C-alpha cells in the first residue's frame, strides 16, 4: 500500500507484487539460464513453435509410446509464494498427459487439445523441486503429441541465474495532480 499526500490531496493505491520477478522465458533458446535437469527418454527443448509470448518456449521431447520427457528445476524457495507458468497441450485425451509436480506431488495434469493458459500453484518455503512431465501411454497418438511450457515465474528463491532476465514491471500510475 502506498500513500501519497500533496497539500489537501491524498491518494492511496495498493500495488500488485511484481517487481524483480524471477522468470524463465526460454528466450535464451536453451536451458542454460537456470540449473535445469532432464529426465525420461528424451529431454525437453527450446522451440519457436507458437510460444505463449516472445520467440521461444519449452517443448516436450519427441517420444514414442510408453515413454516420457521431463524437465526439472530445484530451487531454495525463501518464503511461501506461488509458481506461475503458461502451458499448452496437444495430445490423446486422458491418456497422453502433461503433468506438473512440486516435490514429486502431482499438482495437476492436462491432456487433449488445450490452448495456452496461465496456471498458478502455491509453494511453501524450503528446498523445492518443480517437474514437468509429458508421458505417453502404450498406444495411439493424437494432435501434435506434445506439451509446451513458457513464462515460468518462480517464487522468491535463492536461485542462481546465468544471465536470465529479471523483469521489473512498472506498476505505478501517474498521480494527478502531480505534486512534484
In brief:
With 180 residues, the chain is mainly β. The protein has no helices and 14 strands.
Provide the gyration radius in Å: 20 Å
Distance from N terminus to C terminus (CA atoms, Å) equals: 20 Å
The dominant shape is: globular
Give the averaged pLDDT, no decimals.
Answer: 82
- State the low-pLDDT regions, or none: 14-19, 163-175
Count of strand segments: 14
Return the structural class.
mainly beta
Q: Could you describe the largest sheet, including whether it forms a barrel?
A: 7 strands, antiparallel
Number of helices: 0
The sequence of SSEs as H and E is EEEEEEEEEEEEEE
**Which percent range describes the beta-strand content?**
over 45%
Q: Bin the helical content.
A: under 10%
Can you lay out the helices and strands and say which pair or pack?
Layout: E1 2-6, E2 9-13, E3 21-24, E4 36-40, E5 45-47, E6 57-59, E7 68-77, E8 81-90, E9 97-102, E10 105-110, E11 113-123, E12 126-135, E13 146-154, E14 166-167
Antiparallel strand pairs: 1-2, 3-13, 3-14, 4-7, 5-6, 6-13, 7-12, 8-11, 8-13, 9-10, 9-12
Walk me through the structure.
The chain has 180 residues and is mostly beta strands. 0% of the residues lie in helices and 49% in strands. Strands 3, 5, 6, 8, 11, 13 and 14 form a 7-stranded antiparallel β-sheet that branches. Strands 4-7-12-9-10 form a 5-stranded antiparallel β-sheet, with no helix packed on it. Strands 1-2 form a two-stranded antiparallel sheet. The chain is globular, with a radius of gyration of 20 Å. Mean pLDDT is 82; it is low at 14-19 and 163-175.
Amino acid at each position: 500500500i502506498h500513500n501519497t499526500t500533496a497539500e489537501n490531496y491524498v491518494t492511496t493505491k495498493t500495488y500488485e507484487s511484481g517487481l524483480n520477478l524471477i522468470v524463465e522465458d526460454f528466450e535464451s533458446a536453451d536451458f542454460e539460464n537456470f540449473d535445469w535437469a532432464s529426465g525420461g527418454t528424451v529431454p525437453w527443448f527450446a522451440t519457436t513453435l507458437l510460444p505463449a509470448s516472445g520467440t521461444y518456449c519449452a517443448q516436450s521431447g519427441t517420444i514414442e509410446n510408453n515413454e516420457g520427457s521431463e524437465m526439472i528445476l530445484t530451487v531454495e524457495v525463501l518464503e511461501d509464494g506461488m509458481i506461475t507458468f503458461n502451458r499448452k497441450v496437444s495430445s490423446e485425451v486422458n491418456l497422453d498427459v502433461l503433468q506438473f509436480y512440486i516435490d514429486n506431488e502431482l499438482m495437476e495434469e492436462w491432456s487433449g487439445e488445450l490452448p495456452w493458459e496461465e496456471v498458478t500453484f502455491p509453494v511453501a518455503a524450503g528446498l523445492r523441486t518443480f517437474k514437468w512431465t509429458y508421458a505417453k501411454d502404450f498406444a495411439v497418438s493424437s494432435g501434435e503429441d506434445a506439451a509446451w511450457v513458457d513464462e515460468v515465474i518462480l517464487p522468491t528463491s535463492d536461485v542462481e541465474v546465468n544471465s536470465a532476465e529479471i523483469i521489473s514491471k512498472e506498476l505505478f500510475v501517474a498521480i494527478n495532480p502531480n505534486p512534484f
